[in-house]
UniProtKB/TrEMBL annotation:
PANTHER family the record matches: CHAD DOMAIN-CONTAINING PROTEIN (PTHR39339:SF1), SLR1444 PROTEIN (PTHR39339)
Protein name per the record: CHAD domain-containing protein
Cited InterPro entries: CHAD_dom, CHAD_dom_sf, CYTH-like_dom_sf, CYTH_domain
Organism expressing this protein natively: Williamsia phyllosphaerae
Domain CYTH, first and last residues per copy: 6-212
Domain CHAD positions: 221-502
Pfam family, one: CHAD
Highest taxon listed in the record's lineage: Bacteria
Length: 502
């Protein structure tokens, strides 16, 4: 299957029908133009009954005609533009309504268990003018489109309009791209272009969407409920953003999605009485379970990277390197596969639906109208006391005992919760809890490093017993173990230095 993915960087404008295009050779770097090249494009756009894709600024279409006919999926991408994925027309067989799996998987987090069907039919008569540099390299294209659109939704109507799209084609660096786009915008506006009334042809064809992704801005004096809902929405959006990256095995994706789930759970747990009913606790437990599932792959990822770094200056045998690095890589891939399976389950989709429903219609608790700053102060104070209590209990155990080691984990987890709660004030202007957040983060990091070193020593011991260790590898394992012990001790020293700062 041929899958092509690129970042689409373009400007879009409304224009009067038949508006002549300006001379593009006045733009920086443009020496010649070719065209117009005329294409007739016919596209069917797909979405769920609730327009879940459009609600997340995603378009999914099957287009015939033109140089790039096929199935297209466009998603919000980098700051520079949208990400477009393309597969051939026959990717899912002859059925024109059978969407290829390669385009469903990246938006499964939006579709969940819901099916898609046609929501709009759009025909475009396109005239393409190509802008080239002095060596003939294609830099950009200006598409003058006459659009005929018909909404297939209940009560939908037809529309006709004209627009211009100026799209970069060459691989520009950021400064060159900005310069060309700014110059093009000025030139096209001077020639009669107007700000586009919609961000995409589909948006104009079908109109407004349900919109449960509206930007939430806290008022000047927010309530506890407004703060909690804003924070939950922020972390929900992060989880949704990283979901496709986990499915695609993108770098650091499992880690970032796991952090989002933990932050969601922390907010649900840290503000008692702000949300009413059993739902916050139930969702918190669901997010805890999801974080644990993601944690299998994440822990293996950390260990694999750790052993790659440790072995960089050593000369291990292939067997030892496999027992350390490759074994963790395999564990990571098994863990990520299990995570993706969980993320394709009805249970996961119900969790996403439930957090969406809570954000749209939260049930206020008895503390919902408490001022946000007061609620945050109380939440930080409670989390801080929890850390101090855990530290006090730690001091009762002898260092190195199983009880002491277990209590270190408790301190680390409670410090992490304090950090997340204190950082929840970032959306409040002039938050007073940044010091607690920084200290908690330092405690969490130090104890996390100590824990990673301890786990690594256990893995090293298992590796020593699971392979026929030759004398050279025995020395390597001994050096690695000594380095991990030293790292463990340094991490505990860092914790000791900061533990009393809360």
């Amino acid at each position: 299957m041929t899958v092509h993915e690129q970042v689409e960087i373009e400007l879009k404008f409304d224009v009067d029908a038949g508006q002549p295009i300006p001379d593009l050779t006045t733009l920086p770097g443009v020496a010649t133009t070719t065209g117009p090249i005329v294409e007739q494009l016919d596209a069917t756009y797909f979405d769920t009954e609730n327009l879940d894709l459009a609600d997340h600024a995603v378009t999914l279409r099957r287009r015939t005609g033109g140089h790039d006919e096929g199935w297209h999926l466009k998603r919000p991408g980098t700051e520079r533009g949208r990400t477009e994925r393309q597969v051939p027309l026959d990717a899912a067989g002859d059925d024109a309504h059978a969407v290829p799996a390669e385009l469903i998987e990246p938006v499964r987090v939006h579709l969940r268990s819901r099916s898609v069907s046609p929501v709009a039919a759009i025909g475009t008569r396109r005239q393409i003018t190509e802008a080239r540099d002095s060596e003939g390299t294609l830099l950009a294209v200006l598409c003058a489109d006459l659009v005929t659109a018909r909404s297939l939704l209940p009560g939908g109507t037809g529309q006709v309009w004209s627009e211009w799209e100026f799209e970069l084609v060459a691989d520009f660096d950021d400064d060159a791209a900005v310069e060309l786009l700014e110059s093009a915008e000025a030139l096209l506006r001077a020639a009669g272009a107007r700000t586009a009334s919609s961000g995409s042809k589909l948006a104009r064809a079908i109109g407004s969407t349900p919109g449960h992704r509206e930007n939430r801005r806290l008022p000047a004096k927010p309530t506890a409920l407004e703060l909690v809902v804003t924070e939950l929405a922020r972390h929900r959006d992060q989880l949704v953003a990283w979901d496709p990256a986990v499915r695609a095995d993108a770098d650091d994706a499992v880690h970032q999605m796991r952090v989002a789930t933990r932050r969601l759970r922390s907010v649900l747990k840290a503000f008692p009485g702000v949300l009413d009913g059993p739902e916050p606790e139930r969702l918190g437990e669901e997010f805890k379970e999801l974080a644990a599932i993601l944690g299998v792959a994440r822990d293996a990822e950390v260990q694999a990277e750790r052993y790659r770094d440790l072995l960089e200056d050593e000369n291990p045998s292939a067997a030892l390197e496999s027992a350390l690095v490759e074994a963790q890589n395999q564990r990571y891939h098994r863990g990520r596969k299990a995570a993706v399976a969980a993320m394709t389950s009805d249970r996961y989709f119900r969790l996403l639906d439930a957090i969406d429903a809570l954000l749209v219609d939260p049930t206020p608790g008895e503390n919902a109208q408490v001022p946000a700053r007061a609620a945050l102060r109380d939440a930080v104070r409670s989390s801080r006391k929890s850390v101090l209590k855990a530290q006090k209990k730690l001091s009762r155990y002898d260092e190195g005992t199983p009880e002491w080691t277990e209590q270190l984990h408790v301190v680390r987890k409670k410090a992490k919760r304090l950090r997340y709660v204190a950082e929840a004030g970032a959306t409040l202007r002039g938050s007073l809890h940044s010091d607690e957040a920084r200290t908690a983060k330092r405690i969490q990091a130090a104890l996390g490093d100590a824990n990673d070193a301890s786990i690594s020593r256990e893995v090293l011991a298992v590796a020593a017993g699971s392979i026929g260790v030759d004398p050279t590898d025995a020395f390597v394992l001994g050096r690695l173990d000594a380095r991990e012990q030293a790292e463990h001790d340094r991490a505990l020293k860092r914790y000791s230095d900061v533990a009393g700062d809360l």
